[in-house]
Specification:
Elements lengths: L1 E9 L17 E3 L8 E5 L1 H13 L3 E5 L2 E5 L2 E2 L4 E5 L3 E5 L15 E5 L3 E4 L4 E2 L4 E7 L2 E3 L20 E4 L2 E6 L2 E3 L6 E4 L2 E6 L2 E3 L10 E4 L2 E6 L2 E4 L4 E5 L6 E12 L4 E7 L11 E3 L1
Length: 283
């Protein structure tokens, strides 16, 4: 099905104003300066992490992904950083599951469906506990999803979800392209003040569990001016039994999904939505 959402899905209101790190700060950390190789073969996890850690130690700034193809495993994000992708830059998830790590303790379990299935959390970008983070630029983040499913599109052991923000605040994602994800593309849990604007998500329509954007127990969210094409729900709102998802606006997006364009979905245990749809039409 194809949907055009000209105006909005509104759950009460959007009350947050998101501000990200000020780029006038001169702290710019180019990942190539820390040894990252743009040959699409070298595993750059350590070099990229060193750039992020150095930026964080300096009090924040910009981590720069220049033009080129950079392969990586799990990256731990830090607060007060703009992750900027120049045109022609590719951040490519490793094709090897062993290059993805799981958080320690209770944070390493992801509930896929309420009372159904749990999977070990392994992610490409781990944004647990971060604040004041932005992703900007004209680059592409590619998940190498074909390596994590068989010829019948049955999922193999894989990063799940792909990009994760947990207990995060003041997050902005603008203009980037996300493609070929092995699982849920961008997942927010217990997070607040989120702006997603002008992004593109491309997943094969048969790719399993490739939700575009999942919001779990999260609030004050704006998703606008984006194109989302997925092999599962494009935008899915979920809750845990003791949580709530609220204050969400979806505006001026083109959505293509083999399942649901916007879903109050599997795993929703405590959601009580108040909905208002305006100028919602098919294409």
């Amino acid at each position: 099905m194809k949907y055009f959402i000209k105006s909005a899905l509104c759950i009460i209101s959007l009350a947050a104003t998101v501000s990200c790190y000020n780029r006038k700060n001169n702290n710019i950390f180019n990942i190539k300066d820390f040894g990252a190789k743009d040959d699409s073969i070298t595993l750059n996890t350590q070099a990229i992490q060193q750039a992020i850690d150095a930026c964080s130690k300096a009090g924040g700034g910009v981590v720069l992904f220049p033009s080129g193809k950079f392969t990586t495993g799990t990256i731990i994000l830090k607060s007060n950083i703009e992750y900027h992708f120049q045109a022609g830059s590719y951040l490519i998830g490793s094709a090897r599951i062993e290059d993805y790590i799981s958080p320690e303790g209770d944070n390493n379990i992801l509930l896929i469906a309420q009372n159904q299935k749990q999977e070990t959390l392994r992610v490409l970008l781990d944004g647990t506990g971060v604040t004041n983070v932005s992703f900007t630029g004209q680059g592409i983040i590619d998940g190498n999803g074909n390596f994590f499913r068989d010829d019948e599109y049955t999922p193999l052991e894989r990063p799940m979800p792909w990009i994760s923000f947990r207990q995060a605040k003041n997050i902005t994602i603008r203009e980037l392209t996300f493609q070929n994800s092995p699982s849920h593309v961008i997942r927010f849990e217990k997070s607040n003040q989120i702006v997603i604007d002008g992004i593109k998500i491309f997943n094969h329509p048969q790719s399993p569990n490739t939700d575009g954007i999942d919001l779990v127990d999260s609030r004050n969210v704006s998703i606008s001016n984006s194109f989302i094409s997925t092999g599962d729900d494009a935008i899915c709102l979920k809750t845990n039994p003791d949580g709530i998802t609220e204050h969400v606006v979806v505006n001026n997006c083109i959505i293509q999904s083999d399942d649901a364009a916007i879903k109050f979905g599997t795993g929703s245990a405590g959601i009580t939505p108040l909905l208002q749809f305006q100028q919602y039409k098919y294409i």
